[in-house]
Amino acid sequence: MIATAVSIVFLWICFAVVTAIAGSSRGRAPALWALLGLLFGPFALVAALVLPRKLGHTHVACPACAEPVLRAATICRYCGSKLAGIVGPSAADRELTAAITKRAERWALAIVGGIALAAFIIAAS
Length: 125
Known about the structure:
Blueprint: H1 2-25, H2 30-40, H3 42-50, E1 59-61, E2 68-70, H4 91-124
Antiparallel strand pairs: 1-2
Helix pairs in contact: 1-2, 1-3, 2-3, 3-4
């Protein structure tokens, strides 16, 4: 009985660590995603993996393949297209991207919350 409880706690801690890593790799706050991973386990991990990547101030999207490349790059490392003249997204593009990302985060958290609530209700019955 105690070994089972310890195994479950260890598994949830592993979910927290992996979720934090997945969230961090997508430009999100790792501490927040670690907490979500600790609370919701595999559901938070799925949500972290589904979220789109956030481009930081150092990267822009390649116009040919949409992969993130360094702002100072002259050639895309993924598709080889020339990136001359790319300064980065305009303020309107950044606002639109932020709005879309925030909406995606809300949907992902709502889905994780719904799944967790459903699992809790099923487990309680």
